[in-house]
Queue: 2 jobs
Job 1
Amino acid sequence: MVFGALAALLATLVAREYLDLANKYGLAPHDLATYTFVVLAVIWPVLAIPVPYVPLLMMLVLVLSMRAARDLAKSMSGAASTVLGVLYTGLPFALLVALRGSPRGQALVLYVLVLTWVGDTAAYYAGRSMGRHKLAPRVSPGKTWEGAVASLLAAMVLGYFLLERFAPGAPLWLNLLTAVLVNVAGQIGDLAESALKRGAGVKDSGSLLPGHGGLLDRVDALLFAIPVMWYDVEILLHSYLSP
């Protein structure tokens, strides 16, 4: 329960920065609806809300957002950006809570967090020292293919040793595939947030962390990596995990 509450608080802070970015686009998302349903999304694994009810919650978000729009000309864009905010900032933390509740949940949470942060670090240092070929110059001029490859290799090496500890029966190909999927998802998440910031004309998502930008800047990769990790566990790894 404590983990779910902390995840909900973190998701709310991330949602605040997302809303600031959305407002810079002139989308006018509904703040209260976003906060309410981000928190609901995060704690649904704790409350054991059946998954089929989730689409109904999203429909309710849509209706409330359109009803609350002050400018009817922006009702659709406001509602759409509200729904996106719940999916983008709420769903990943909900799946992190669900991951925590699965067999070997603590180890799985540690795995996705450490793998993502180590990959980010490897990409940063390799990109600075060896980077020559731009990965996505329009979106993030500082990112390079060399950094992306270094991130992937670091994740594969670290992922192998971590997964061997709590899923020792998993075959090598599955071990490496898990690391690759999580790392690639994280790198795409990083680029996705960079695109949002560039479109909004800002360098950082916020100023919550002085000298490091906003909280969204720190968890952007995790917002994509966590769902991929959850699906990987549910579809591929579950039979190799033991309590």
Note: The radius of gyration is 19 Å.
Job 2
Amino acid sequence: MMKFIDSEAALCIGKTLVISDLHLGIEYDFYKSGITLPSQTGKAAEKIMSIIDKTRCKKLIILGDIKHKVPGSSFQEQKEIPHFFSYLSETVKIEIVKGNHDAGIEKYLPGNVRMHAGSGFLYREHYLCHGHALPGKDVLEARRIITGHLHAVIEVKDRLGYRWTQKVWVRAKPLKARLMKAFASAGKIEEIIAMPAFSDFVGGKPIGEAEPMGPVMKMASMRNAELYLLDGTYIGVVGNLQGDA
């Protein structure tokens, strides 16, 4: 059974916690832009542990973009990522899907962390992926695709120019024709879910302003997709959003 975690960019599949887009080490980019931001890696680990304690999950799956710098890895990432995973793996089993920011991350993973290719993998009745690469053909056996990469947010702007931005969940129906084109079958897929980024610093593109990133969300009916805030509040359908208040 799948369950969204109230007020968190996280969901549970049974006793497995799923999150996406940590972007550990993003502070280095802020520093280069003249903004001093202390490392957030420890806080991210503690926040994940708090959710694990609350949900009593036994496994953690991260859907890509564990680190931020591309290409290569910053000194901060090289130093902090091994400690991050060693700390969490004392409590839960960990699996990751390799994201487009994760080149070379295997060098920093403890041996007890399992890594899946960027195309993703079938997990029970769900297909878990980052979203930057085409899924494997076993996606056709899934009822639901769960992906990251989109960093979905909504933005509302008033007449004075003030802006309100919030992370959102995206729940969309698949475009059967695009699935047929990619896989010669639409399979069993009933829904595509885009997770909000777990990081509070990575930002995102407002839904509806641009073509969705990556091949996975391009197979979703975005105009008819439903949007929800992290606390479960239903915002509406993408095609009805005006962006102005």
Note: Helices lie at 27-32, 41-55, 75-89, 176-183, 214-217.
